[in-house]
Design brief:
The protein is of the alpha+beta class and about 140 residues long. It has a single domain, classed as Nucleoside diphosphate kinase-like domain (Alpha-Beta Plaits). The protein has 7 helices and 4 strands, in the order E-H-H-E-H-H-E-H-H-E-H. The chain has a 4-stranded antiparallel sheet. The longest helix has 11 residues. The radius of gyration is 14 Å and the shape is globular. The two termini are about 25 Å apart. Bound molecules: guanosine-5'-triphosphate and magnesium ion.
Length: about 140
């Protein structure tokens, strides 16, 4: 059982394809409350810092390039068992493996352009949330 906070980003591909509305609807219907939300854009440097854990991996350059290619929606979400329930909702990282009815199955284009991010631990959810939002921007 995870804690009650997670962090998400609707990625540049999904913003460009006008999927913000349908994705937020699915998040809402799953029972998440929005604590903080904004449209913003990663600079290259900020994307490299956010994904620092993947530095040196074969997909890192493509990931940083893609995540800084256009605006995103960043949000902090609240719900009981937030991390696990949110990752169930978004589905497998590889859209070809994502289950029916998941956000990635519905909206992802590829392994890189996979529509949405979900934090993978309580600790990372807090770290990633504070990467984008000050205390005063969280309600
Ligand atoms: P996020 O919610 O985006 O963090 O995805 P994840 O937690 O399911 O995956 P992970 O944190 O391991 O990787 C971050 C991102 O790097 C993924 O969303 C993918 O876009 C990309 N990525 C990870 N592994 C691979 C891979 O093997 N190939 C490619 N092309 N991209 C990958
Ligand atoms: Mg991850």
């Amino acid at each position: 059982m995870s804690g009650n906070i997670t962090f998400t980003m609707i990625k540049p591909c999904a913003v460009k394809n006008n999927f913000i509305g349908p994705i937020l609807k699915m998040i809402n219907e799953k029972g998440f409350r929005i604590k903080a939300i904004k449209m913003t854009r990663f600079s290259r440097e900020r994307a490299e810092a956010f994904y620092g854990i993947h530095a040196g991996k074969f997909f890192f350059e493509e990931l940083v390039e893609f995540m800084s290619s256009g605006p995103i929606i960043a949000a902090i979400l609240e719900k009981e068992n937030a991390i696990d329930d949110f990752r169930d909702l978004i589905g497998n990282t590889n859209p070809e493996k994502a289950a029916e009815g998941t956000i990635r199955k519905l909206f992802a284009e590829s392994f890189t352009a996979n529509a949405i991010h979900g934090a993978d631990s309580d600790e990372n959810a807090l770290r990633e949330g504070s990467f984008f939002f000050s205390e005063m921007e969280q309600y």
